[in-house]
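Marked as duplicate of an earlier ticket. Keeping the data here for the record.
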Amino acid sequence: MRLLGCVVAIMLVLFMFGCGQPAIEPEPDTTPEPEPSVPDTEPAPTPEPETDGEETETEEEGEEGPAALEGDIELKRFYTDEGQIESISPAEVTISSGTEITWVNTDDRPHVLTAIGGDVQIPGMKSLRLAPGESWSFTFEEVGTYTYIDVVFGSKGTIVVE
């Protein structure tokens, strides 16, 4: 009798596992997004600026100069396309005389800035240590080229004041 009870229990367990079905996951929605329509009309031509008959000098294509500053200079480690570690972004900027620039350390490590070379020096930037979250500002009054380095990571920065 015991044997019959064990056989029935085993068959009952096998029956329960055999009747179970795996969970069926719903298929993801594969409805394609509509593509934007393109008008069949040609865009209006852009008018050429008027000149007084004299030719003006233009920059050559592919030649990039310092970027115009649109905010603070960020101090944070990042990799360039060449795989090098940099820490100043943007590294080169052009500003007008009287512009204030703020360096902000958004990294989790301290950065140390020191003025080097260049036409003129940045007063107060000699082993300037900025801890994470700290910032430092300076107003550039004198026209010239200011160069500095992040001593911790070796990145160079240039400020051109016009």
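See parent ticket for discussion. DSSP finds one helix and ten strands in the chain.
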